[in-house]
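ok so i was messing around last nite and threw this chain in just to see what happens. nothing serious, just curious
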Amino acid sequence: MLALFLQIILIGALAACSGNGSAAVDTIISTQQTSVDIEDTTSTTEVQSSASAASTVSVEYDADDLDATISSADISYVKLNGDSIAYEGSGATVNGSIITITGAGVYNLSGTLDDGQIRVDAEDTAKVTLVLDGVNITYSISSPIHVVNAEKVILTLADGTENILTDGSTYVLEDPTNAEPNAAIFSKDDLTINGRGSLTVHANHLNGILSKDNLKIIGGTITVTAVNDGIRGRNSIAIKDGIISINAGGDGMQSNNDEETGKGYISIEGGTIVIVAGLDGIQAETSLLLSAGDITITTGGGSINSSSGGDWGMWGMDLPNNTNDTTSAKGLKAGVDITVTGGTITIDSSDDSIHTNNSIIINGGAMLLASGDDGMHSDTNLVINGGDITITKSYEGVESASLIINNGTLHIASNDDGLNTSGGNDGSAINGRPGQNDFAMSGDYNLYINGGYIFIDALGDGMDINGTIDMTAGTVIINGPTSDGNGALDYLGSFDITGGYLLAVGSAGMAQAPSQTSTQYSIMHNYTSRLAAGTIIHIQTEAGDEILTFEPTKDYQSIVFSSPELTNGMTYLVYSGGSATGTSLDGLYTSGTYTGNTQVASLTISSIVTGSGMTGRGFPSGGGGGGMPPQP
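result:
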């Protein structure tokens, strides 16, 4: 039995593929789905996302977005000479150190401009390509590159070149009403960046790169240092490839159109992205889609800006509830939904690492998260169909009103609850320390486990479910709390287990087992006194067949174990202490030998839940959905 148990665990730990849940869960998911198509000239990728309202978002890459190759016969050349600009030809005019491009076409720029501007003010139908061929442009009173009007502008970074743009701290605004321009690269229309050169942006005024329409990054090495936001695309940001490094006092990336349907989204399909942000790392007003790439984000100084006490770092400040200054330092944030299908994501955030006001779907990818608040938070639905998720630090690990785990691997470390479901919403604002924006503690807020591998190390409740738990498959291992005020399992309604493997170890005061309405047998043993961390738990049959050998990492006084192999009428012996050899995965031993110490219990399965030892001292908050099982 132990071999099968470990086989299931190893499969879960290595798998990062999608899985299928029960028909009831499939119905729940299907009613929440949004189809999101990401298209280019050669392929179409469909990503399933969960949202409260059906909508279709399309990212279309034109041929000139994807191909940075330009015929020399089509190029007009602009030479920057310190305090002057040399240009001969039509389609542009020069006034001192400012060139205004009024005609469609390709313009090659090279040289240094000490205090001047590249300005595009063309027809609505004009497509303008600016080839940055080794430029160093400084403009002390406005944007070094300012797109006033065009259909689309493409910035092509010439192969092997270094290009630098620097603005001043104070602008002479052309549009004081809207405080514009407000970025070192400012475009009122579509903006694409491609090529294989490098671009460095020093944004001393506010933002680094900003498009009030759609912003696409196809390639290049881009470095942005900004007082406020690093990269902003009002209608959308689409990243296909490139090496992007952002250091921003505000948000790293932001798409902020909250007025038009189908806009305000961010799609990342590849590239290497490193963001250090004072506020949010990547923020989308609506949808955030990640299908590939290597993303590293640090926000708010990182998770070190938290504490194990009542005040969690910078979030210890109490803000008025009616404030419009909703300070937020989340890693990934979206107003509607986040969908992850692939890529490698590393986040160190003082606020939630991954947060949405509605729903999250994880279909794949590898995530390493350290958070000063929640590892992952969704106000409505959170569905995990695959992927490898490791939360090394959090206040609460994974939190949502409804949580569905169909597959994937989760390792969670939390100062409070590992998995939490409850109601209401905490929105995007932070008023007080993380964990204070808690959901209401009543209602039907459920956890469905239909597969996957879940390992939880929690100082609070391992699983705090303010509703019901349905477990049909998968593996759950919990190193629970040492305090009797919490429990490895804490649920308000019922816990029906019909399949899978469950091991919950922790304190005894609030200990719960699965419900008698389950169809799979469980055993529970509460010790008369607390056992020290590292004291091995060993369960075997009367014939000596090993069922379980586990080494908890913390002091404990209660164990709950459920397995499809537990059989009615069979007797199982529980041992404490001793030593074990073999392979250990998350404290669970296999392919070795246990040298016994003290037998502490003998349990004969006589009902769905069979228990022994001391009785609990109470039920979790909300009542006794499970509580102590009958004693043999």
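not much to say yet. The first helix runs from residue 2 to 14.
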